[in-house]
## 1
Amino acid sequence: MSKIVRLFKFIKEFKKKRECPSVVNFDITSRCNLDCEHCYWKKTSDSKKELSDKEWKEIFLKYKNKGTSSTFLTGGEPALRLNVIRMADKIFNSVTIVSNGTIKIPEDIQRRIFISIECGVRPCFRTLS
């Protein structure tokens, strides 16, 4: 789907009256491949349980059917759940992925990707014993 078609769909969906917000953020994983000292997720998350792909699909479809057209996928590191990203890519008109940039997002996922640059400034990589 071309970017201009997505833009028109986004504008059309944005104008609709809905039961829930047009943009929703989903933390799709609590795991991360880094160990950043400054990470808010590391400091606040104590959940190790993750939803299954089937559960994420149900949640995405529920929100889509209630009027959500755009989503942010965060975590932990969302690139650890590429299958969930692909699912959201098929369901929502607009998807933004917030990543640490160390795991390549495949080129078939043509969405907005925000990369944290803090990882280059502060020590983040786990030391292997």
## 2
Amino acid sequence: MIATAEPKQTRIDDLQKKISATRLSIWLSCRLRFYFKYVAGITKPRTAALYVGHTVHGVLKHWNKLRWRKQTFTTESLKDQFETLWTTDQKKELVRWEADEEPGEKATAWSLLDLYFKDTPIPVNEMPEGVEVTVEADLAKHGLPRLIGILDLVRAGGRITDFKTVGQTPNEEKAAHTNELQLSAYSVLYREATGRKEGGLELHQLVKLKTPKLVITKLEPMTDNQQTRLFKQMESYVEGIGRQDFVPSPGLHCAACSFFNECRRWS
């Protein structure tokens, strides 16, 4: 466990100036978890599930960049990239493996990628609009701080595409609802960067089952109501951080929280 040496008020001031979808999502789910992660700066090893998602995302980023640059690749070269990432990224940060867990998780991660490369709805020759694009939106005119984010993939026609690894087969309506905050944030960022409305939104969800599945959820562009919801959530974030309203939100999600022990000691 490592905590930042940066002054607490400095961290709070910085967090009020810029917001990302990830920070906002954590804030809304549990303000004390947000405090441990972003204000106290406590770092924890990744869980196995998070490392699988991290590596899958890294290989998909590599694949998208190869297509963007019109470079050739094979399944074997993508497998080589997977092997490299799986090993080298563990040298940069710790992973919390249970006994004998890593080989099975590694096999799962590659099986998800292998499925995606075989069943992807994206044509190999489709030229992306952008891959892993870092974007900022100045929302001062709405009385809000800057919104920051990285777009995984923007397909031809401005279709914002986000990749997910999930543990069970997603319901389309629930997937749209639980990912609304992130997709709305990406829509705002895209519109700010291009001056155009996105062509639509897509969730490409790789399901970690004994027999892996790929579930594609296609959604319409962000509505005015969804943008209003996002902006109201951002207002809550700014006001709450200003009050240092870092309180716990006990619930079922606590079972998977890496700050469980710190939370139990909180008073």
## 3
Amino acid sequence: MERAAFALVVHAEFTKFRTVRGWVIALCAAAAVFVLLACLSAWASRQPSPPVPTGPGGEAVADTYTFVHQTLAGDGTLTARVTSLSGAYVPVSGSPVSDFSSSRRAQSSSQLEPGLAPWAKAGIILEPGTSQGTTYAAVMVTGSHGVRMQYDYTHDSPGLPGSVGPSSPRWLRLARAGEVITGYDSADGSHWTEIGTARLTGLRRTVQIGLFVTSPEYFPAGATVGTSSVATAHFDQVSFRGGLPRRSWHGGAITGSGYYRPYTPSTPAWRQPSAGTFTITGSGDIAPLVGDIISAAWSGASIVNGTIVALLIVIVPATLFATSEYRRGLIRTTFAASPRRGHVLAAKAMAAGSLAFGAGAIATAIAEVITRHVLAANGNYLFPQSGTDLARVVIGTGLLLGLAAALAVALGMMLRRSAPAVAAGIVLLVLPGILGSQSGNWLMRFTPTAAFAIQATLPRSGLVTSSYTPPNGYFPTGPWAGLAVLAAYTAAALGAAAWLVRRRDAV
């Protein structure tokens, strides 16, 4: 009986909302402006993207380094000792890594600051050829992550910890047996430990094997923008067994015209002072390509822009849905017909929230299709988006707008006046997003704006040091955790509104 009574209240509130043409038009306008602004934002990104290498799994990758190599026919083993790894970076006043349209980001600068990138890498690598995005396996020392074995950009196994230096050299070994590549390390050259293995399916008999050095973007202390860096490694005791022809070594920078622009050192990329001894300098990275480096191609930026404007519009009818009855004195009639004030509040929140959810989900689905088409037509690179991610963005954005509408209803019931309630809704739901990137991200964690994380689709990687912060398409909380923050605010506001309405008898 009680459920039936509540269902009647909900039906009555839906009817009230639908009969006010201005509120219905406002929701339709929010959806239309959402789509229009998202499309205009995508259309404004007309600058074609440079080519982006893709790895064996189809993921976007950075694949730029200095490679000194020979041809290996069949099985074989290459061993080398790394005695030092040092680095330097372009001062932060240079252009950021993400600015791919600039001219080589201060590469003509002779003023480099000393500093070794945590994921600077130097070691032994095996690959079928020197084209970007090819399958590979490598064993390496790093700036701050010890010895690692990595393959195909996303696979990583740890070896000996600690940094490399004259007093703590590292011996590295990479062995091939058919399609199976095994990495080893040693602290003394006598006692070896297997780090891991990789199976490179379809690996042809003839491959390239050799020494490499690379150095990704560097983040000076306190900086939120990465800058180009360079690393130099010293190798000695280089030896090999198996199908190497023992000819002279060949080398140079493996690079392309993609987003990641490495620093070009003025000194030779490599030299061989004596047999089995090398000094190699490199810049770039061999790793997944994360979104902040090419955030201009993030299609979700258009969706975020549309959502912000839609929020501004949705707040108004949702607030008026509550305050108009107080202004006209009709709230007494409503409570006379439905004495349980909590049911009335819940029904209003459900009506406004459900309609806002529908408008938001439909607008997001349309905008996603159109913006990705526009960006692709403009030559922008688009990160692959799975069906699960697309469903999360569509449903999640609808929930974001629906919860925001319910929160606005609660504010309207508490304040009873339209202007203060609308202003409060904007301060809670919109302003933190504008100030978030200048606040050390705490506003994006602890205010309702955290819900924008539901729209995050850019890849992250523990193998890349990067700035995963707004406004580069990243958010400090997980997608559903961010939406839960908004849900908590909405629940708290509805609870406070229910208590206040009962206490003052809503008159």
